[in-house]
Amino acid sequence: MDAYLPKPEDKFTFGLWTVGNPGRDPFGEPTRSRMDPVHTVRKLSELGAWGVNFHDNDLVPIDASTAERDRIVADFKKALGDHNMVVPMATTNLFGDPAFKDGAFTSADSRVRAYALQKTMQAMDLGAEFGAKTYVFWGGREGAEVDAGGVMNDGLKRFRDAINFLCDYNHDQGYGYRFALEPKPNEPRGDLFLPTAGAMLGFIATLDQPDMVGVNPEFAHDTMAGLNFAHALAQIIDAGKLFHVDLNDQKMGRFDQDLRFGAENLKTAFFTVKLLEESGYDGPRHFDAHALRTEDEDGVWAFAAGCMRTYLILKDKVARFAADTEIQDMIRAYTVTEPDLDGLGQGYSADKAARLKSMTFDRHALGSRRVDLERLDQLTVEILMGVR
Ligand code: GCO
Ligand code: MN
Ligand code: MN
């Protein structure tokens, strides 16, 4: 029995747009044909995925008639039932249509903002029909190349108005969605608003219903900006705001590559899986990536299977790391705990402040303590290389 075979309880999900990516890029035409959503559901379920997510227009074309919409929805529902697949997350395409060329919720044109709200409410209705409980907001066109068009923070105010409005709509309809805002530093706009996890957390605190709203961080987005994704993830977990996660990979400083999970940065991928597995996060492990443009449909399924298999192998490495007595002894030695001193630093009182100020510290002894991180890191790398 293959220990790394994905099962529904692993909660792996893919977007219709991920495995369905036709291999178009700014320099070249598609290399694969459009994939039928019903076919996608069957193939993903055969591979051991738990669910599938969509943008409104991944499922229902933007110009579909009501009758077409109803037929597509019915066929897709049947496929989900036949293959025991769920739709845990839904989202809106607010970036593809030229109407959104200069933003959707943050557009300087109130007609575009109203259309974006209408489209999102309809997409929320669609997601709710499939039982989705997480609603993702990725502001693909919410950004700028030119900052001279108004006051620089106009966009943020407009984005806040939109999310506040949609939180009330969610409440009014009784949909029970949790909103997950997805930061990205750039692409397709030169600068996207709210580029990092920290920016998103700061913004959420300014909303009318901050408890309804969390973050959907993506591995590649932090990596593009030269940041450490595992650190961003840790901060989001610390804030209790990890509502969803987009897993993929990326070389630092490149265009948006959306590589197979684990394809580039195995160590950060390891710490990502470690955080997800050890934090009690029980939401979907969503892969927001796509097969290389070189691939045909077989390559797409190799890509999808690879994302899940790598996650499960890394999960096994996380367990090995936790069970490795030498590593755990080193972590214990690394963490110096003097209960009296810790107590002094936690919870201010005038007395504690006075005691701390009167203490004598041996700076030289502190500076010469043996930290031993080289060996600890080598052991981590050896776990990843499969020799421990
Ligand atoms: C990207 C984004 C998107 C979003 C998706 C779901 O870089 O294109 O990551 O893939 O995650 O639109 O909202
Ligand atoms: Mn992305
Ligand atoms: Mn994403």
Structure characterization notes:
The protein has 388 residues and is α/β, with parallel strands linked by helices. It folds into two domains: 316 residues, Divalent-metal-dependent TIM barrel enzymes (TIM Barrel, Alpha-Beta Barrel); 61 residues. It has 16 helices and ten strands. An eight-stranded parallel β-sheet has the order 8-6-4-3-2-1-10-9. The chain has a two-stranded antiparallel sheet with strand order 5-7. Strand 9, helix 10 and strand 10 form a beta-alpha-beta unit. Helix 2 packs parallel to helix 4, helix 9 runs parallel beside helix 10 and helix 12 runs antiparallel to helix 16. 38% of the residues are buried. The mean pLDDT is 97. The site of one manganese (II) ion has 6 residues, from helix 8.
Task: Give the helices and strands, then pairings.
Blueprint lengths: L11 E4 H4 L17 H11 L3 E5 H4 L6 H17 L6 E3 L18 H20 L4 E5 L4 E2 L9 H20 L4 E5 L8 E2 L4 H8 L8 E3 L3 H6 L4 H10 L7 E2 L18 H13 L6 E3 L9 H27 L1 H10 L4 H7 L4 H9 L4 H5 L5 H13 L3
Parallel strand pairs: 1-2, 1-10, 2-3, 3-4, 4-6, 6-8, 9-10
Antiparallel strand pairs: 5-7
Helix pairs in contact: 2-4, 5-6, 9-10, 10-11, 12-16
Bound molecules: D-gluconic acid (GCO) and manganese (II) ion (MN) (2 copies).
